[in-house]
Structures are given as C-alpha cells and as structure tokens.
What we know:
The structure holds 2 protein chains of 2 kinds.
Chain A: H1 10-13, E1 15-26, E2 29-40, E3 44-48, H2 55-62, E4 70-77, H3 83-91, E5 96-99, E6 102-106, H4 112-117, E7 121-123, H5 136-142, H6 145-151, H7 156-160, H8 163-182, H9 198-211, E8 216-220, H10 228-245, E9 248-252, H11 256-262, E10 265-270, E11 273-278, H12 280-284, H13 287-294, H14 301-322
Parallel strand pairs in A: 3-9, 3-10, 7-8, 8-9
Antiparallel strand pairs in A: 1-2, 1-4, 4-6, 5-6, 10-11
Helix pairs in contact in A: 5-8, 5-9, 8-9, 10-11, 11-14
Chain B: H1 2-6, H2 20-32, H3 35-40, H4 45-63, E1 69-74, E2 77-82, H5 84-106, H6 111-130, H7 132-139, H8 143-173, H9 181-216, H10 221-247, H11 256-273, H12 277-299, H13 304-324, H14 326-329, H15 355-358, H16 366-392, H17 394-404, H18 406-411, H19 416-442, H20 452-465, H21 470-487, H22 492-497, H23 507-521
Antiparallel strand pairs in B: 1-2
Helix pairs in contact in B: 4-5, 5-6, 8-9, 9-10, 10-16, 10-17, 10-19, 10-20, 10-21, 11-12, 11-13, 11-19, 12-19, 16-17, 16-19, 17-19, 20-21
Amino acid sequence: MNVTTTSRHGWENDPLLTVENLTMRFGGLVAVDNLSFTVGRGDITALIGPNGAGKTTVFNCVTGFYKPTEGRIVMRHGPGRRDEAVEELTDSAARYARQDDGAVFLLERMPDFTISRTAKVARTFQNIRLFGGMTCLENLLVAQHNPLMRASGFSIAGLLNLPSYRSAAKNAKDRAIYWLEQCRLIHRADDPAADLPYGDQRRLEIARAMCSEPHLLCLDEPAAGLNPRESAELNDLLQFIRAETGTSILLIEHDMGVVMKISDHVVVLDYGRKIADETAEAVRNDPKVIAAYLGVDDESEIEDEEIRADLHRGEQQAGTEGGEA
Amino acid sequence: MAGETESGTGQEQPVATTQPEGAQIKSEERADAPNLVVDTGPSGLSERLKQAAVATFVTAVLGFFFLPIRTSIAPGGLDITWRWSLYALALIFAFFGKLLVDAYLLSPAGPRVRAMVSGLFILGFAVLYAWHPLGDILFGTGQFEELLGSVLIGVVFGAILLGLVLLISRATGKIGTPATGVAAQKKADRITSFGTWSLRILFVVALLLPWIVMFLFPNRDRQLIDISILILTYVMLGWGLNIVVGLAGLLDLGYVAFYAVGAYAYALLAQYLGFGFWMALPLAGLFAALWGLVLGFPVLRLRGDYLAIVTLAFGEIIRVVLLNWSDFTGGPDGIGRIPKPTLFGIEFNRGEGGFADIFGLDYDTIHRFIFFYYIIFVLALITHFATMRLRRLPVGRAWEALREDEIACRSLGINTTLVKLSAFSIGAMFGGFAGSFFATRQGFISPESFTFIESAIILAIVVLGGLGSQIGVVFASIVMIGGIELLRNIGFMSVVFGENFDPTQFRMLIFGLAMVLIMVWKPRGLISARQPSAVYKERKSIGADVVAQGEGH
Lengths: 325, 553
C-alpha cells in the first residue's frame, strides 16, 4: 500500500500520526482515495498538491470536521509505534486508550472538539477564522478554555475568585503574552483581531493554536497571501515552534519556498491519491510530482513558467539557506 | 472642517481646515452614519428645500384621505368632518421634519445650512405667531398659541432625550477610537473619566431614587417608584437576555417563557407548599435554568432563522400549557393572593408586628414600595455583577467566542454544546428570578402577562441598548418603559390629535418608530462598542463593526 514502506525514514519508526487507507466521498465525488501517510514525531511534514487534490479534506478528516467514509487515523502520545495498543483499541469500541507512558487515539471516532481537547491536535484555517471582535489577548485566552475551565471549578471557583483560579488565570495570561511575543504581535495585544493586517492575522491564528498546547499543529496554507519577507519570518516561527516546544507540524502549502526550506517530509497528493511520499529533496526531483504540478505538454505556458520559477526558487533557497541551518 | 470634504458629501464650497480635533470628531460621527445615505443625501440648501418639498407633496397625496377627511356616524348616515388644520400641520411638519432630519442625521450639513434650516423653522413659527390672522385661518381662532406651547414642550422633551442619549453614547462608546496626537489622547482620557463619572452618578441616583422621588414629588411618589420598579425589572430581564443574545449570540424570541416559569414557580410553591418569597426565589431561578436546558437541547443544532423560530415556539408552548392546565395553574384565571416578601420575617402590614409598628413609624404604603424597589435593585445588581464576572471567566469568553466563530471554537477544543446550554440556562435563571419578583410585586399572575409581546419588548431593549452592552440596556429600559409611562402625562398630543387621544395606545407604533430611528442612526444600538474582557496594557473599546452578532440576526 505504501510506496516507501522502508524504515530508512524516521517518520516510519516514531510516528505521531498515521493516516491509513483514508477515503472520503461526497456523494459520487471521491475527494480522498485510499490515502495512507505518516507524520513523524518532531517533524515538519508538508502536504502539497494542485488545487482540488483533497489536501484540506484530509485536514478536515484529521481534525474531525469531516467523518471519513473509510480509514483509520491514529494519533499517539509518547514515543514509539505502539502497534499492539492501536490494534487493541481498534477492536474495542473505545475512542482512545491511555497507557503509562502515553496514549493512542483513533481520531475518526472522536468528535471535533475532543480531538483538540484530548488528542491535542490544533489547526488553523485556510480562510482565517479568528474571533474578530475580541482582542488578540482574548483570542489566545479562549484557546486555553479547557484548562481554565477546570481551574475555575466550572465557574464556581471563578465566580468566587479563589486563589487557585487567580493563579491559573495569571498563568494563562502569561502563556498568551509569551506567544504574542514570539509571534511579534505583543504591540497589538489589546487590538481587536479583525483590525490586524493579513499577515499578522495568520500569525495570530498560529499563536492561538499553540496556546492550546498541541502535540500536532495542522496549518492550512499558512503562507497564503504573505509577501516573501513574511514567508521567511513564518519559516523562522515554525522552526522556532518545533525547536522550542517539540510540536510536530503538518502543513498544507503552495509556497515552495516555505515547503522546501523547512519540511522534513513531503506528501504529494493529486486527485485524492498520493503520488509521492519522500524527503523534500527527493520529492523535488520526482517526475510524477513535476508532471502533476506542471501538467503535461499542452498546459498553459504562463502557469508553467510561474510554477517552474517557484519550484526553482524553492530549490535555491533550500540549497543556499539549508547550509546555515 | 476637513472631515466633510474627505468623506465626500459632495459639498462644493471650499472650507478652511481649522480645528483638527473637531474635524476628527466629525469624521468619527461620519463613520457611524450609514454611508449609503451620506452619499446620496442632498447637499446645497436649494437641493434640500427641493427634497423637503417633494416629501411634503408625498405626504399631501398619501395623507389626503386620512388626515383632512373624517367620516363619523351622524343621524341619517355618515357625516364628513373636515380637518384642514390637522392636514396643514402635518404638511408643515413633513416639510420641516425632512429638512431637520436631513440636516442633523441623514446627511449632516455644515453649520451654515443647519443654522439656516433651524432658523427657518423657528422663523416660520414666529411669523405665524406674530401674524395672528394666518394662524387663526390655519388652526382656528385662539388655537395657535396653545399649539405652539405644546409643540415647544414636545421639542424640548425630545431634545433633552436625544441630548442625553448622545452624551451618554459618546461618553461610553467612543473611548477607544483611534486617537492620534496628544490633544486627541487628552480628549479621550477626559471622555473616559467623564464616562465613568456619569456612570457613578447614575448609580448613586439609582441607589437613592426612592428618597429623591419622595423629596421632589411628594404627591406622586408611589406612582414614580412603581415605574422605577418596573424599569428595573426590565433592566434585569434585559441583562439576563443579554447573556443569550448579546454575549453568546443566540437569538432567543421566547425569553418570556423563563420569566413565566419563575413567576409560576413562586406562585405555585406558595400556593401548594406555603413557601415564602426568599425560599422560593432560588428555586424559581433553578426551575427556570432547568427550562433553559430543556429549551437549549432541541435548538442546539439550529442556526439563524430556525433558531429564532423554535425559541419563539417554545415561549408560546409554555404560555399555552399554563393557560390550559387549569387544575394546576388556574388556567386563564391565574393565581392570586401571592404572598408579599418579608424583611427578615417582618411583614409590611398595618398594625401589630408590622414594619411600621416595629420601627415606630406611621404606617404608610410607601414602605412596601421602597422595599420592593430595593429588592429588585439588589437582584438587578447581582445579575449585573454576575454577568460582568462571567464575562471574564472562561465560560463567558467561550460565549463571546461562540458568537464570533463557532467552528474556530470547536477547533480549539471547546464543547460548543455545553457553552450554548450554559448561556441558555444562566440567562434563563436571571429571567426566573425576575419572574418570581414580578409575581410577588403583582400579587396576581395569569398567562396574559407572558405573551410574545413581552419577549419582543425585552429583545427590543437589548437591541436598542446595543447587543452585549450592560449600560445600554439600562438606557434602553428607561427610554422604552419609562418613556412610554411618561407619555401618559404629556398633554400636548391631545391638542394635535384630539381630546380622546391616549398615547399609550400607540406603544407599539412608538416602539417601531424608535427602532427605525435607532437602526438608521445607530444600527448596532445606543452603545455598540465592546469592552474587552482581558487587558494587557491599555483598555481599548472595540468598534461594533468588527464584532460579530451571532446566529439569527
């Protein structure tokens, strides 16, 4: 089933998320067709493909916004493959199983909000979904709803303003301020999110997702609409997130500059099927990928040029800047 | 007036830029006005006059069969009475009303045009006043002076009301508009301190209101305190509904159901189990909260219009059940003899052991009114402080986040089902408290008191006040409930419309008019700015244009 089922890749040995035989049908349309891939722990994994390839559908299945027609999506906390636990869980009716040193989750069985709350998968959206009328700080506090809710004793300790809640609230605010600083949004902390420029909104959405302390951060086109300088800053931010928190990142992206520079692992989709699953370098030279992205022969020349230049730019950036990192 | 030329009202004459501060306020005002009207509004005086003439003509044509001709039954058939004075007055009002509304609200004119229009209006009346023959021809001999006096009272009353609202909304709503420069910053600070000070004064006035009323209006104190109690009841209901509609963004058209549940819970507990008010009050809140959960469950999946329709139906279901379950609730006859609350066991009765007796006062029914006033005052304050506290807790932030974007909420691990249910049940609980207070104040309740129109009034208060704004609800309640009660005492309208005119019959018409005016002038309510629930460095209020409204609006 998997083209590259070899243990030479780190993501096969220590997977965080495995998507197995995922199929999603909308009526007669097969958006995702028998897709399997793995997200390695601590990796930055990119999901790329032409428009309409089914990338966002995969995201929606992973984060529970769609229930997949078929397939299994396993999320693991704690190191190792945990194959036995996964099989045991699959045979049972449970949604997840806690173990001594971690847990396994079957995401396709879980409602959307528990995927973020329990399985610790956070996401951003292709069309930014911020709480526009709330300030940046409030946006980040909303993301810490569940721990705060427990600390507020389901509002009773909070209404009485007990010390336990006060300290939890202070911690939450500190965490929010930390992420605002990391995303260089601290000067806009008291401004409504809707007033931020586009690039800042993208970063705020990432900061908000990070405030929910995820194990896996799913980013849907984080670089869309950013200028080259902002894209470079985004690269730094994502690499900082991985280095600082150990959060694994799964991203959908069209900007090859971002993809090629920071990804450890690239999965390429076309018409809902996987056509490549390799390191960034191997994918760049894969003829199938080039054909899917560039089209064959008769496609419009202008588009080809743009994408070719894009790919080329990505190569160059990865080549020149890869050495420094 | 740089703001004028910038926002493109189409005024041709070049105007000097003098006061940047004033210009900024101007452009802020302009930002609030709907652009659509600003763009198409009349510009020069001649254009304005032409438009006013058109409006007058339309009024003349449309009103011809309604205003000057009146048929009445006379011996031997129908009789026609001609009321030319009314017709003339309506046309004059149409002409000047259009001019004034244009100049001040719809397409604000420069000071010159405003002065001219206002001057013309005053001049017109002055000429009529000085030149009696014309006044007598138009309005009948001797009628004009009386009419003028009445109109003046009306104008002054309206101006005071409008001024009050403008002042308050500017003081509380414009705190965080982007201020540039030191002068603007200073002004913002001044306005902020003025806002907090005016609110403090308002609080003190509310606290001492019974004494103020007794001092100023010794002959009408009962009536005025009673109106204040009514207003505070609606303030409390408005604050309760504000949680559901303003914070969580779920449009609830059946809020009166919880009011009814609270009222009937107390009445029935008192009737069947002999509960007193203070014992029944928390239970009434609890019952209402449970009904909030019951109502919440079926509407969880609904969005938009469907949500509104189902909540509307639920409100009616409760009323119909109360109406038809005669054995238990008394049906249309209602429940009477509901016990009054006691002050730590002391009743407000005449004679031995009553409040007046124990404290050595002369018995006076006003004691009970004052007691009621403070009960509802405290209940309303509890509602307010609980709401303000909840807004800063995770559950309150989740309500607001739900209003802003439900999908983003779910992506952050928030159980939107529980969040919606908590909003419904907590909002319902405060409605239940208010309901049991209503039952004890009235002493008699029947399903008649809980019709849809009550829901509509409470919702109107919340919408007029500004969704999510606590102080806006207070002003809206004063205007909607107090204003209508005041209408009873204003005689000038009977001069215009005839002796038998009862303004309270036109409650709904005035409601509608107030709604239309507010929607044109301040589409997001009197106080539309949102105050953030958490602050890093500087508290800035958030303009209504970026705040979402939630489902069903």
